[in-house]
């Protein structure tokens, strides 16, 4: 099906055209042209993605669409095609990535207005979109890895977009290097996988057919290495430290990274390899535990952040933890369902935050805001809906997707994980309503001379608000009279769970009550006060400084590596290798000086050399004849 190739190729093509036009004259104002070229291909990709989804929806569960562009690698038994495939999992990912990506493009047209790098921004933006679509549509893990790395490159370019400021370059470098650590594990896992398959084929379908022949110990090692890649890409402990600093890029970048693209790649990868992780349930439990710890850890830090974008960044890390709990426990449909609903409300939250930042002339500290409820009504209402959704308040989208994950953890008797996830849900409601109350309800800190927001920044918020309110209805379970259409469509190999409806009602009630308690606490502390009310909390300094994890990594890893580099650079390279080279060069120089004495262009000296040579040859010949 050629539509699969077009979905990927079109964003790359537009990125190329945008780059050529921009490089022709970077200073020329061509915003309208850039905006049209940047927007048209995501729209077409969205339409084609919906066509693919409809075709798969109306076909049997096991239908897989394919399209091959060409043979890429053909060496011995290694045959890798640049090929694309789409099953129902792919269709779901494609649909919301392209749709929400298009909305973010529309938003970015207004957000980036007047920026000197307008054309460059959309070049990188479309490169990012194409890279993620390549990752999702890949027919085999090698092509997936190409998309995986291109996503990393795109994020590096976008995070460091404002490269004039050193902290932005530092943030981009940090994201790039931390992800390289995860990617090393990922590529090692792929290498081992290809070795043990012994040439039986490298497409996902071929790997699935032959996975039973692989030793379970080797599978556990491969699954662990692949998950290291997911930890880096999806910002889970210990490879999460890049994500908060990624806020250095423009806000549309944050929305695209956090909602629809890069950070969901790790969850998608685990779901795509579900046939592998089903064989190693112990590794799945380890994944779920990492997800639970990451979710709670990030929620604690988010509760004490002042920067509006960093609050949402840690929120993303926390919500990704929920997704890994689900896929780790074999509830792949629930994990992807939370990816789906999260894309709506997290994109909305970031875009709403960006609107506030622009309106307040790039102010990001929430405690310098306040009283914006009436002045930014069409930002406030969508953000309220998104906040209710992420807090798990019914009937908004986050309630149904988060509920499915918590129920899975409880039903599978992973009570520690369930308790951590429940505590995280309560903290989520607290820090999100803390943000909402401080920004929109508390007393203004000063008179606001607000920048007028273009309609391209506010209209996408309304569309996303509708999604945040209603997307969860696709996953209503039997306990609430539904049939979970989302899971039925995906048809993933979920581990079956059994739980009484009364138990599910009780657990949901606990979550809702805890959420409202958290909202009430946030209201009492932040809705009317103009100052931070928890300044004297003893542990606050530790949490505000993110438990000093970055400093700890600096002591354990960065400083020893810098010391080692100095040792190699100064002692081994400069003192040993350089001196050895200089000694060799000096020897050649002295030899050249000696030969220069002999080669002096004076004919009488050359005649003497000839006479000496002839004499030595004559003496040698006479001696040889005498011996005979």
Give me a quick take on this structure.
The protein has 628 residues and is mainly alpha-helical.
Helix content: over 70%
Task: Spell the H/E element sequence.
Answer: HHEEHHHHHHHHHHHHHHHHHHHHHH
- Main sheet overview: 2 strands, antiparallel
Spatial order of strands in the largest sheet: 1-2
Report the total helices: 24
Question: What is the strand content?
Answer: under 5%
Write the layout of secondary structure elements.
Elements: H1 2-24, H2 31-57, E1 65-75, E2 78-86, H3 88-111, H4 118-137, H5 141-159, H6 166-197, H7 204-210, H8 216-233, H9 242-245, H10 251-260, H11 265-272, H12 274-277, H13 281-302, H14 308-328, H15 332-359, H16 377-390, H17 397-411, H18 415-441, H19 455-470, H20 485-490, H21 501-526, H22 540-544, H23 549-598, H24 603-627
Helix pairs in contact: 1-2, 1-4, 2-3, 2-4, 3-4, 3-10, 3-15, 3-19, 4-5, 5-6, 6-8, 8-11, 10-15, 13-14, 13-18, 14-15, 14-17, 14-18, 15-16, 15-17, 15-19, 16-18, 16-19, 17-18, 18-21
Describe it.
With 628 residues, the protein is mainly α. It is built from 24 helices and two strands. The protein has helices at residues 2-24, 31-57, 88-111, 118-137, 141-159, 166-197, 204-210, 216-233, 242-245, 251-260, 265-272, 274-277, 281-302, 308-328, 332-359, 377-390, 397-411, 415-441, 455-470, 485-490, 501-526, 540-544, 549-598, 603-627; strands spanning 65-75, 78-86. It has a two-stranded antiparallel ribbon with strand order 1-2. A hairpin with a 2-residue loop joins strand 1 and strand 2 (78-86). Helix 14 packs antiparallel against helix 18 (415-441) and helix 15 (332-359) runs antiparallel to helix 17. The chain is globular. The termini are far apart. The mean pLDDT is 90.
């Amino acid at each position: 099906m050629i539509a699969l190739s077009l979905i990927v190729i079109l964003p790359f093509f537009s990125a190329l055209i945008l780059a050529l036009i921009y490089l022709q004259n970077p200073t020329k104002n061509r915003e309208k042209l850039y905006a049209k070229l940047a927007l048209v291909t995501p729209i077409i990709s969205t339409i084609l993605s919906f066509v693919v989804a409809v075709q798969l929806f109306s076909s049997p569960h096991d239908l897989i669409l394919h399209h091959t562009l060409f043979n890429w690698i053909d060496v011995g038994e290694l045959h890798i095609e640049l090929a694309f495939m789409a099953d129902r999992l792919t269709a779901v990912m494609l649909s919301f990535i392209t749709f929400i990506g298009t909305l973010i493009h529309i938003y970015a047209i207004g957000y980036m207005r007047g920026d000197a790098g307008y054309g460059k921004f959309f070049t990188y933006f479309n490169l990012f979109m194409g890279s993620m679509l390549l990752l999702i549509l890949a027919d085999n893990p090698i092509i997936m890895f190409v998309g995986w790395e291109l996503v990393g490159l795109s994020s590096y370019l976008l995070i460091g977009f404002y490269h004039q400021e050193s902290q932005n370059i530092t943030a981009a470098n940090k994201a790039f290097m931390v992800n390289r650590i995860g990617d090393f594990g990922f590529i090692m896992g792929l290498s081992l996988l290809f070795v043990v398959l012994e040439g039986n084929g490298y497409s996902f379908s071929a790997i699935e057919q032959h996975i039973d022949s692989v030793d379970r110990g080797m599978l556990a090692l491969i699954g662990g290495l692949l998950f290291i890649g997911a930890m880096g890409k999806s910002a889970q402990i210990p490879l999460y430290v890049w994500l908060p600093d990624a806020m250095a890029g423009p806000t549309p970048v944050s929305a695209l990274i956090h909602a629809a693209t890069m950070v969901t790649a790790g969850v998608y990868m685990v779901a795509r390899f579900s046939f592998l992780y089903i064989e190693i349930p112990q590794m799945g439990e380890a994944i779920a535990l990492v997800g639970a710890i990451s979710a709670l850890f990030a929620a604690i830090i988010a509760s004490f952040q002042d920067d509006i974008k960093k609050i949402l960044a840690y929120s993303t890390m926390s919500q990704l933890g929920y997704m890994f709990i689900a896929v780790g426990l074999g509830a792949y449909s629930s994990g992807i369902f939370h990816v789906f609903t999260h894309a709506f409300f997290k994109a909305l939250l970031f875009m709403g935050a960006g609107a506030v930042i622009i309106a307040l002339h790039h102010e990001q500290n929430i405690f310098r805001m306040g009283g914006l409820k009436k002045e930014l009504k069409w930002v406030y209402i969508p953000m309220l809906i998104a906040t209710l959704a992420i807090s798990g308040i019914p009937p908004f989208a986050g309630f149904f997707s988060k509920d499915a994950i918590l129920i899975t953890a409880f039903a599978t008797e992973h009570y520690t994980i369930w308790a951590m996830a429940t505590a995280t849900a309560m903290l989520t409601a607290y820090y999100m309503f803390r943000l909402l109350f401080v920004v929109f309800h508390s007393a203004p800190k000063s008179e606001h001379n607000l920048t007028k927001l273009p309609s391209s920044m506010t209209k996408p918020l309304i569309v996303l608000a509708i999604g945040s309110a209603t997307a969860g209805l696709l996953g209503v379970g039997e306990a609430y009279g539904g049939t979970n259409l989302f899971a039925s469509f995906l048809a993933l190999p979920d581990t079956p769970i059994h739980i009484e409806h009364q138990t599910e009602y009780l657990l949901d009630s606990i979550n809702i009550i805890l959420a409202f308690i958290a909202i009430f606490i946030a209201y009492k502390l932040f809705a009317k006060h103009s100052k931070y009310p928890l300044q004297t909390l003893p542990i606050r300094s530790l949490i505000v400084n993110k438990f000093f994890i970055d400093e700890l990594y600096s002591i354990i890893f960065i400083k020893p590596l810098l010391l080692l580099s100095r040792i190699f650079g100064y002692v081994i390279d400069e003192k040993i290798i350089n001196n050895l080279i200089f000694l060799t060069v000096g020897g050649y120089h002295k030899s050249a000086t000696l030969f220069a004495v002999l080669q002096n262009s004076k004919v009488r000296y050359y005649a003497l050399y000839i006479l000496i040579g002839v004499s030595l040859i004559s003496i040698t010949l006479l001696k040889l004849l005498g011996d005979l």
